[in-house]
Amino acid sequence: MTVKVRELNKISEVEEALKWVYKKKKKRRTPQEFLGNSPRRIYKVTPKEAWVNDAELENGLYLDYRIPIKLA
Q1: Strand (E) positions, the chain?
Q2: What is the Cα–Cα distance from 38 to 9, expressed in whole angstroms?
Q3: CA-based angle 67:46:33, to the nearest 5?
Q4: Cβ–Cβ contacts within 10 Å for residue 29, how many?
Q5: Rounded Cα gap, residues 22 and 27, in angstroms
Q6: Mean pLDDT of successive 10-residue segments in the chain (72 residues)?
Q7: Rounded to an integer, what distance in angstroms lies between the CA atom of residue 50 and that of residue 15?
């Protein structure tokens, strides 16, 4: 998979991301813990290309290849 990665640096973006990260009963962190001089960071990862691997046997050897997955 190839991806695009971007650091989230707006409070509203970090708040939205933290809803996904802390869905369970973990102690939820605040957006301020991921901004400014804090050592913690949070990133948005967007896939650009994706595939599944497959293989076939040819002349006694396995040949690996990728099958692209169309991203909407």
Answers
A1: 2-7, 43-58, 61-69
A2: 12
A3: 145
A4: 15
A5: 8
A6: 96 95 84 95 96 95 96 88
A7: 28
Give pLDDT, residue 43: 97
Whether the pTM exceeds 0.85: the reply is: no
Q: In what order do the strands lie in the sheet with 61-69?
A: 2-7, 43-58, 61-69
The residue type found at 35 is: L
Q: How far apart are CA 70 and CA 28, in angstroms?
A: 35
Distance (Å, rounded) from C-alpha 30 to C-alpha 35?
Answer: 10
- Tokens in use for 1? 């998979």
Task: Estimate to the nearest angstrom the gap between the alpha carbon of 25 and the chain centroid.
Answer: 22
Q: Return the C-alpha torsion angle 27, 32, 37, 42, nearest 10.
A: 70
